[in-house]
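seq as requested:
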Amino acid sequence: MGDSYAQAERVPQLILASTSPYRRELLARLGLEFEVAAPGVGEEHLRGESPADRALRLATAKAQSLSARQPQVVVVGSDQVAACGGEVLDKPGDSARCREQLTRLSGHTAHFYTACVLLLGAGPALHLAHVDTTTVVFRALTAAEIDRYVARERPFDCAGGFRAEGSGIALFDCIESQDPTALIGLPLIWLAGALRAAGFQLP
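struct tokens:
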């Protein structure tokens, strides 16, 4: 009992460097206490940067922005970049742009690159990083189906213009992924292992 209590006392505080409600809900599944903080990192494109590299750069920058201020805590940063046919798909922001993105995706395949970084700056520094690639094959969608979906779910804050955890699942022919939570925004299978490496007890 004493050893396990001492180990729990040594586990550093956990912060999620994100204001995304989707990532917050995903991390909560692991049953750990954590705080949420805005990383304050711009998400500009860099010329010639691949979608996977962009996702990893931004996830790292988000984690570093908080770790630099609180090096004694474990910080998790994550970012997702969607691409179809070489075109990056940002969050649509409104219904018109959302319909445009789904029309572009209809009958095509998109790749979602979800990066996750775990940083611990105090003592022996720990820096773990991972990029999950999820392939989503969209079925051929009619304009009426797209209009109904956008009006019902209003997924304006989601890359690609859909929510796979909602009725957006009906838009697909198939999803290929090693981690179903990655498409929602946080690869929990990898993150659980990274948190164990940082001293957290899971499950």
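Confidence is low (pLDDT under 50) at residues 1-8.
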